[in-house]
Specification:
This protein is 23% helix and 31% strand. By secondary structure, it is α/β, with parallel strands linked by helices. Helix 6 runs parallel beside helix 7. It is globular, with a radius of gyration of 19 Å.
Length: 299
């Protein structure tokens, strides 16, 4: 791998990044527009202030900083949840105390690659770690994979299961597991379980269901090394997304390269970005590194 890439998702009909700047982003989730903090949007806004004032809700950070809970200020009443759809999936959107909505459009930048991996053989076992509300898990299941989805949050797992029902994928083989990812991976290695494709979306900081502490910079190297022991004899790929602004995508790529030494294949890494609707400007959304044994990662 010689360079880092910028990778944008396909156009969504139900989502738009309308504008960014002055430490915030203006987005459309279905019929509603939201303003959320964005620490990397240091540039001036492109749209007039009146467009921002028309937003249905604004998230205000707490005194605890960027990662603490905050408050949504609704300028007009919004439902507790509403539906969005993309690529045949339907899923619930909610305003959470941690600014998230349960939807990360940037993840769909890798869905075409994911579908190609699953289509390459009759039966594919996919492991999704830190799976949150399950959109990538559902996409994999909808394309024929057997999926194991792991997250430490019971509410997140419930939300993902509700998305499964909403997407009419209730008959697809998905194991929903509430577990600490590190402990789960260690147990699976002891059990001899193997997976063809592994997706990870680790947070910067998190807690397991029994209070286990997760810190990305401290624990990611060991987890990446362990995860490769779960790959089958004919693996398809490993994809890692991360939201750590103090880490480089090259760091994650180097971890993958070291853990997969001798297996061949190709590695791609860079930033997942979201394009603004009215400008050519790209908003950095996440870091990624992707290893593929066959079909090259995108780009």
């Amino acid at each position: 791998m010689q360079e880092l890439h910028l990778l944008a998702p396909p156009v969504w009909s139900d989502y738009d990044l309308l504008d960014t700047g002055a430490g915030a982003k203006l987005e459309r989730f279905g019929p509603y527009t939201l303003v959320r903090p964005e620490t990397q949007a240091l540039w001036p806004r492109g749209l007039p202030e009146r467009e921002w004032q028309r937003a249905d809700a604004v998230f205000e950070k707490s005194r605890g900083g960027d990662e603490g809970p905050g408050v949504w200020r609704q300028r007009r009443p919004l439902p507790d949840q509403w539906q969005m759809r993309h690529e045949g999936l339907r899923f619930w959107v909610r305003l959470t105390p941690f600014r998230h909505t349960g939807v990360f459009p940037e993840h769909s930048a890798h869905w075409a690659w994911l579908a190609a991996q699953i289509a390459s053989r009759p039966e594919v076992d996919v492991l999704v770690l830190f799976g949150y509300t399950g959109l990538s898990s559902l996409y994999a299941a909808a394309h024929g994979a057997r999926v194991t989805h792991v997250d430490a949050s019971r509410p997140a797992i419930l939300w993902a299961q509700q998305n499964q029902q909403l997407s009419a994928l209730g008959e697809r083989p998905i194991r929903w597991l509430i577990d600490d990812v590190g402990k789960f991976v260690a147990r699976e290695i002891r059990r001899g379980r193997r997976y063809d494709l592994i997706l990870m979306d680790p947070p910067v900081f998190g807690r397991g269901p029994k209070g286990e502490i997760w810190r990305l910079h401290e624990q990611l190297p060991a987890l990446v090394a362990q995860v490769t022991d779960l790959l089958s004899d004919a693996p398809l790929g490993v994809l890692i997304n991360a939201y750590a602004t103090s880490m480089s995508a090259l760091t994650i790529a180097n971890l993958l390269d070291a853990a997969l030494a001798g297996r061949g294949g190709t590695i791609s890494a860079g930033e997942l970005v979201l394009p603004e609707r009215h400008r050519q400007r790209l908003l950095p959304a996440a870091l990624y590194a992707c290893w593929s044994s066959g079909t090259p990662p995108l780009p």
